[in-house]
Amino acid sequence: MDEEDFSASSSKQYYPYYPHPQPHPSATGTTTTTPTSIHHAFETSEFSTFSPARDLTFDFSGKWATDILLETATAIADRNSGRFQQLMWMLNELSSPYGDTDQKLGSYFLQALFNRMTDSGERCYRTLASVSEKTCSFETTRKMVLKFQEVSPWTTFGHVACNGAIMEAFEGESKLHIIDISSTYCTQWPTLLESLATRTDETPHLKLTTIVATKNGGAPGSITSGTAASVQDIMKEIGNRMEKFARLMGVPFKFNVIHHGGDLCELDLSKLDIKEDEALAINCVGTLHSIRAVDNRRDMMISNFKKLQPRIITVVEEEADLDVGVDGMEFVKGFQECLRWFRVYFEALDESFARTSNERLMLERAAGRA
Amino acid sequence: TTSVAAAAVSSIPRQNLENRCINLERNELSDWVEQVTKKLIDDLPAQNTDTDDHHSRTLQAPADIPMLCEDSFPPSLLGDFRPRKTVTSSDFDELQWSNVNGGNDRGLSRLDEQGLSLITLLLECAVAISIDNLGEAHRMLLELTQMASPYALSCAERVVAYFAKAMSSRVINSWLGICSPLINYKTVHCAFQAFNNVSPFIKFAHFTSNQAILEAFHRRDRVHIIDLDIMQGLQWPALFHILATRMEGPPHVTMTGMGSSMELLTETGKQLSNFAKRLGMSFEFHPIAKKFGEIDITMVRLRRGETLAIHWLQHSLYDATGPDWKTMRLMEQLGPRILTLVEQDLSHGGSFLDRFVGSLHYYSTMFDSLGAYLAADDPNRHHIEHCLLYREINNILAIGGPARSGEDKMKQWRSELAARNSFVQVPMSSNSMAQAQLILNMFPPAHGYRLVQGDGTLRLGWKDTSLFTASAWTSHISR
């Protein structure tokens, strides 16, 4: 990519991109304003006559989104506002949430970066989450999750592996209790219920306690990004269906839901209603990563688990550490990891779904919020 | 008396309202949009506490959009259209997942309330942008972009999705202070070709223009055609064929093709040369990778004795010609025997809100026309909507406009040409009309497309809205 001369654009006033307003050395003769409120961030800049398109020969083939996004992250870390501007402009022109994978990545990351730079991340997240909640019903969520499982092994892979391990651990037991901390709306369990029903010996009694953590920052396609009320409704419906299904299968079944606000490590174990004679399994799909790796929280969680003395603990997690550092190189590294992860996710979705799938769009939007 | 009036107002028809809404079953959301936008704009000065003079300047309902309905909505009715903050799940399910038989996608069998409330929110957002309230606009856009899907069954929702995206783009480039476009011409040309295959508008433009050019070239041996934005040159093989097989034998043809990239122009030139060779017609191609309004006359290799035709198929994908006044001046200097012009019935000038309302009407109609022909999940349709129509919407809303480019665009070229002494209109002949009719017969929902001849022009539109107008002109100083 060509290095442009930005002197034409540097004559306009810069807006508060950074929390520390320092005039950048390469921006000659500018005044930077101190950031006071988010409102200022949305003012229109005066349009420069700078026209970057003229001399730019851009290669549209290949994975351009990754290149541009990484450069943008680096520009942020280096506080190079001129470069940042140019790159954001390119992203804005090229990306679209309705195009190919690179265009989608560009679009969602552009929004995220924009929010970061205008300090409006929290507010935007809340708006997005509340809107999506209003437009999502039990039916649409169910359709999305089931379609996803139908076209892609992304979630079912973990389910099948865990169920297998759990069945083995429960061999010969007659009273079973599963503590389920997952993001997949209990879609894992019907298959397990079937296996239990077709076991050669007497069908055991199963108690399923699902813990739903209502906290921000859920993984793609997960429960945890909703608010308490909507999740409660969904879980209630799910509970009804599970109980019906179990009756059909002839498996004695009890279903409990615990809605837990706040961090998972602070879970009150006594609420779990675990009886002495029960064989216990703990199943965690896509939820443990929400416990931040600070203050010994993860240690606490593990020791909590230990106290319960389960026969088996099954964990399914994404191969990604999406913790983005605050500044500098840490930010860039974290950003890179995010990029890698979401690219993989989007590409998988693209492969599996039809071009014009609304279900896929829902999943992408959930990822966008994340 | 006031209470009587109030009673009269409130008794108006929920009925009346529903009658209008039912039209939407047949995807005529464009009509509804027109009425609502006018009402919304008229409502505005009362609502806003900000600078009133600023508003009165910008908030004139565009005069050239024909009002189909004489009644005006009382404000209370419009209130019913405020976006409902909670869309109940049953409504959404019904709308989102209703069963429609594949093939003939006639939209939804019930009121498209979701679509209507989205459009209302979209309009409010446009108003926010027009008064530079970007923060508020951004918030509304977050909602819109989560709620509207471009894969929806409803054309209204699709249009909203793309318009919302264009406005988000605008918010960001306003914040950045850069508004130049960055275009992937290959993708655009590809989508253009796809559009050409499913919709008659481009062929209409090509064939009617070709006919006018053919007539102007009658008994001329040396001809020169300047195409202001040749793209892949889809238009010309048909003309070459007729020229090559005409009674008096083929002329020597020189073509000056203009466009954005020399690479693409060279490719086009090669294709056309090969074709001409196969026809046994003598042909020369001169590519100019610049905008017509940015070159001077010396760059055009016009020879003595050549009969000149200038052809311009206007589009909104990007600025193909540069400053309008320079374009006009060069045309006058060149003095062509025929100038064929195909315009979109859409104004590129005026304030943001004017352009917004105009383009919402225009593109709603476009989307309707595609929706009548192609299924909702047709990837080809998506390709066209995303890579072509959306490109135009984005260009109009996020890039264009005098405040940004610093220049004023002419509202309508044929009016400009008519007003000047340098050009005289050449009425489109009955042969051109015949050509147009033939093309329409190639496209299935022929009943939806409307061809109108009048004022010497030919207009093609969908239902009651004209979308493209073809006209021809000759220069006073032509040879």
Automatic annotation (TrEMBL), chain A:
Span list, region Disordered: 1-35
Q: Which Pfam families match?
A: GRAS
Q: Where is this region: VHIID?
A: 145-210
Instruction: Tell me which UniProt keywords the record has, alphabetically.
Output: Transcription, Transcription regulation
Low complexity compositional bias, start-end: 7-17, 25-35
Q: Which InterPro entries match?
A: TF_GRAS
Q: Where is this motif: VHIID?
A: 176-180
**What domain of life is recorded for the organism?**
Eukaryota
Q: What PANTHER family is this protein classified in?
A: OSJNBA0084A10.13 PROTEIN-RELATED
Q: Which family does it belong to?
A: Belongs to the GRAS family.
Q: What is this protein called?
A: Protein SHORT-ROOT-like
> Which organism does this record belong to?
Gossypium armourianum
The record lists the lineage as: Eukaryota, Viridiplantae, Streptophyta, Embryophyta, Tracheophyta
TrEMBL record, chain B:
User: What's the superkingdom here?
Assistant: Eukaryota
Instruction: Please name the Pfam families in this protein's record.
Output: GRAS
Q: Which residues cross the membrane?
A: none
Motif VHIID: chain residues? 223-227
- Enumerate the UniProt keywords alphabetically: Transcription, Transcription regulation
Region (Leucine repeat II (LRII)) residue ranges read 267-299
Enumerate the residue ranges of region (SAW).
Answer: 398-474
PROSITE patterns per UniProt: GRAS
Chain intervals for the UniProt region annotation (VHIID)? 192-257
Q: Which PANTHER family match?
A: OSJNBA0084A10.13 PROTEIN-RELATED
What's the family?
Belongs to the GRAS family.
What is this protein called in UniProt?
Protein SCARECROW-like
Protein's organism? Gossypium armourianum
